């Protein structure tokens, strides 16, 4: 086909894709072309605007390295990450809802026993967290691997700080024989997603703030179950309705209760006010998994 115009070019490109051998690849590229051409018809960009878009994507790529992933941040702040998450996690009753992984999970984290302090020596309100891990619609899961990470009282993750010589606000624990877990840490605080790059420019251009409401990250893995990637958000946080990455779900917003001085549930004497959080997680069984693997 030649002599193409704005009305015929989309079909010409689609025809050129008709021999793509991998059917999934064909579906994906055809849909991409249809939506991309539809987007261009919708906004009718000038050449200068199209060049601005190409520069933006180029700078987004150039900002990426082994520590910074600006494309994921772009996907997060446009709600695309949470849409992919929603499509892939249609959860059964009793399963905890999921949310974004975020860029601050790292492989290097200490294995800790139940009752450990994830943030020894750090400033911030003391927080005691406890709960259980169960199979959705089934029993408790012993030995579930629970990865934890969160921001500190200044709104930074340990990996963003240069004044720490060991992981902090981070660790891996396991549920006990009765599926229970508990640990100490400091109260997480809201923080901005990285906004010193192209994604920050886009946020400012659209009059959006970069903040995420305070949360704890959990990644919980157990045999025969989908690994759960989620957060627990602090009830009452000012940013719950405007999370920069659209990650909040009502079922994940929970009270981080103030407690009077006294004795914590694990027997720790608490001379000052402290906070407590309780949450019971449900993991989705993998399709076709025998019930004995579902606890
Ligand atoms: C986070 O919660 O750690 C996070 C998620 C998405 C983008 C930036 C940070
Ligand atoms: Fe986070």
TrEMBL record:
Q: Which GO terms describe its molecular function?
A: catechol 1,2-dioxygenase activity; ferric iron binding
Q: Look up the coiled coil feature and give its residue ranges.
A: none
What Pfam families does its record include? Dioxygenase_C, Dioxygenase_N
What are its cofactors? Fe(3+)
Superkingdom classification of source: Bacteria
Is Magnesium one of the keywords UniProt gives this record? no
Per the database record, which ranges form the Intradiol ring-cleavage dioxygenases domain? 129-157
Q: Which GO terms describe its biological process?
A: catechol-containing compound metabolic process
Keywords of this protein's UniProt record, alphabetized? Dioxygenase, Iron, Metal-binding, Oxidoreductase
The record's family statement is: Belongs to the intradiol ring-cleavage dioxygenase family.
**What name goes with this protein?**
Hydroxyquinol 1,2-dioxygenase
